[in-house]
Amino acid sequence: MINLRNISIQNKLVLIQVLTSVFVLAIFFTGFIMIDIKDYKERKVKSIQSIAKVLAANNVSTIQFQDNEAAKDILSELQNVAPDIVRAVITDTDGNTFAQFSKTKADSSWFDLGNKTFAFEGRHLYVTNPIVNAENELAGHVYIDCELSELEDMKSKKFGIAGISLVVALGCGFLIAFIIQTYVSKRLLFLVEKMKEASETNNYRLVIKDDGKDEIGILIKVYNDLMYQVNESQQRKDEFIGIASHELKTPLTSIKGYIELLNEMETRQPQQIFIQKTKESTAKLEHLIADLLDVSRINSGQLQLNIEEFKMDELIDESIDSISAGIRTDHTIIRNGTFNDLTVKGDRQRIEQVLINLLSNAVKYSPPRSDIFVNSTIKDEQLIVEIKDFGNGIPEEDKEKIFERFYRARNTSVHISGFGLGLYICSDIIKRHNGKIWVESGAKGSSFFFSLPTIKKSIPI
Ligand code: ADP
What we know:
This protein has 461 residues and is of the alpha+beta class. The chain contains ten helices and twelve strands. The strands form three sheets. The protein has a five-stranded antiparallel beta sheet with strand order 2-1-5-4-3. The chain has a five-stranded mixed beta sheet with strand order 7-9-10-12-11. Strands 6-8 form a two-stranded antiparallel ribbon. A hairpin with a 2-residue loop joins strand 11 and strand 12. Helix 7 crosses helix 8 (348-364). Residues 361-362, 365, 389, 391, 394, 402, 408-409, 412-413, 418-424, 446 line the site of adenosine-5'-diphosphate.
């Protein structure tokens, strides 16, 4: 069965208008045709009844004098007076046929009218009238069978006209509905588009202008108010992240300094272990605060890029070295292919940040002792770096979202700690370099790619 919810508002409006007009017209036409048929039948009954009365009056003497021939002559006159009378019979008081006129085969049987003076049966009208003599005594009956071929013609003509009118009305209704619905649905669809845009770009500053006072106007106003509130709280949250990370950075730098000092002073083994653990935790905190600061800079449009020319191969090797030095599990990072010392224009430190982030994710989200590949290819004047791991992969529904801030895929977020900020920052850095970042993932792990334009192609950043 058709689910009305799955039909677009546009089509629903057209459907409602077309169905309503067709329904109203159908009732209107049927009513008119019914009234016409009723009028016709009443007129027909009256005219045949008056013919029957005249026949009854004229046949008083024919019955009295038993003059069948004269009666037949009178009946045969009917052919000229009313051609749709197919049969007329005069009977005596006992019901025996005295005279008969028939266009078809003469027949002694007759439709039983009971006590009625007329009846409609199929395509026929049957009428009877008593023959009463001068003394007011019953002398016999006149029976008339009238064929209603005219009525059938009239019916088929009228239904034909009604059918054509309905088709024309359907066409006009469709056209009018189509014109009107675009006005109604255009605004709704526009609202839907803007909502989609806001949710895809996370830009809650989009205001929709509409001065309508109807329900759609109210909906748009509510949407604008809601977006204003979302934007406000978003701004407050961003401000908080900015302030909090700044405030955290200063004491953390002091803590780091003191730990270094302690580390140099302390030579005893157990204490050394505690100092190492404190150093690791501080590094984690430092990393988080750096990420939060970057997010805050991205949101306020203050993430600065220091553009220079650098060799991509060198940067990849350095990043692999720095990750390998810090890996406590025994992952092997294998490099495939080179960019033949091609140079890239961009912020070296920020691109390194992207590489380190993708590499540490590969380490973090894949099993110990598994390999990690770093592949380099050049395609359509783009340098493409692929970081491939053999971890659990990323579910299809999370692939797009993991580049959003604070988003973490459900299959990993429970047992592996993280904040969902790294890929958001990477994505912003790469986009600002006019590059692309994407992920391909299956059951055998994930491949994170990013591309950067070669110098020839590079667009001013
Ligand atoms: P974090 O790792 O701190 O959670 P990221 O922004 O770096 O934040 O990553 C976002 C999410 O993407 C992660 O929480 C994880 O669910 C998923 N993810 C990232 N890299 C990988 C990977 N190599 N394999 C599987 N999932 C990954």
